[in-house]
Amino acid sequence: MFDRSTGGALTPLSVVIDQVLGPVRALIEGRPTLMFGTNSYLGLNFEESCVEAATEALRRFGAGSTASRVASGNQKLHVDLEKAVAALYGRSDAIVFSTGFMANLGAIGGLVREGDAIALDAHCHASIFDACRLSGAKVATFRHNDAADLQRVMAASGVAPARTLVVTEGVYSVLGDVADLPAIVAVTRGSGAVLLVDEAHSLGLYGAHARGVAEAQGVEDDVDVIVGTFSKSVGVVGGYCVTSDRAFRTLRFAARPYLYTASLPPPVVAAAHRAIDLIRDDASRRDKAWRNARAFHAGLVALGLPPSAPPGPVGAVRMPGIKPGLDMWRALLTAGVYVNMLIPPATPNGEVVLRYSVSAAHEPEDIETALAVIGRSARAVGIPLREPAPAGA
Ligand code: PMP
User: For site-directed labelling of 353, which of 70, 147, 337, 343 has its Cα 20 to 30 A away?
Assistant: First the structure.
C-alpha cells in the first residue's frame, strides 16, 4: 500500500522548499537554489502590481469567498475576471474555475453526455483523462499528435462526429512538444465534432496576443472551447474555459466543479486579473522568456543533452533509467539547481525524464550557472552525453 522503498532518501516527493525567494529562487535545506522547475513562465507570481492587487483585494474583500459561485461566492471580481479572459481571447463567454484541473473536469463533464464519444490525445494531462472517465462518454485515445489516428478512432467509435468531443493540448506538459492543431482541425472541421484545446502551458507565451498555440497556428476559429489555467504564466491558481459557441452558454450550469466548490479567493482573482492585463498589454516578459528558453535549449544541446522537443518554456531531457535519472536529479538539487524528475505513469512511453521550465525571471547568468551545474553533474553521475551535431548538419 505504501511505498517505503526509498528508505527516507531524497526523492522528488520529499523535497521541502523552506522559503520561496522569488519566481525562480528558493531556499531548500538551507541552500540557495535556482528554480528551473516552476511554471512561473513570466515571473508574475512576484510581479509587484499583481502582489499589490492581491493585497488590496485581501484587505477590501477578505481572504476567502467562503462559497461557490452559485451560492454567495459570485463576486463582481469574479465576473470582471471572466470578462477580461473572454476579451483576451476575443470570445463571448468565459467561465472561471477554482483550478485548471477543475476547468477540465467542468468543461469536459459539462459538454458531453452518456452516449457521446470523446477522442483524446494519448499524451493529455491527468485532469483530462479523469474528466473523460467521469463523463460517462465512450472514451478512446488517439496516438500522440497523430491526426490520421484521430480520424481512425472517430470512424471506429460508432458514435456520430456531431456527438464527439476531441481533446488535445497546445503545449504538452511532460515533453514540451507542441500540438499539430492544423492537422487535427483538418479532421474535425465540418464534421460536427467539438474541438477542445487545453492551453495550460501556452497562455502568455504563444501567438501574437499570447493566447496560445491555436492562435500561433492560425486555427482559433476552428477550436470550439479553450481551457487554461492561472497556475502557470498567470502566477496564481485557478482555471478557465472560453468559447463563443452559443450552444455552450449552459455549460456553467452543467459543470459540477463550478457548482459545487468554493469560488477563488478575492486576492487570487485580483492578481489573476492584473496578470491577464499584463499578458495582454506587455510582450516584454514573453520575449524574455523566449530568449531564455532558446538559450537554455541551445546550451543543453551543446552539452550533449538535447531536449526531446524544440525550444519552449517547458522541456525535458530523457534519462537512461530511474536510477541514473534519480542520481542526476539529486546531484542537481544538491548543487542548487531544481528541476522536475518525472517517471511513469506521469510520463508517456515508460520514459524517465528531467523536466525543466524556463522563465522570464531568469537572468542570463542563471542560465549559464544552471548549464554549468548540469554539465558537471551529468559527468559526475555518468549520464551518457551525445556529441553535438556538427554545425550546418
Ligand atoms: N492541464 C494541463 C495540460 C496541465 O499541465 C495542468 C497542470 N500541470 C493542468 C491542466 C492542471 O492545472 P492546475 O494545476 O492549475 O490545476
Answer: 147
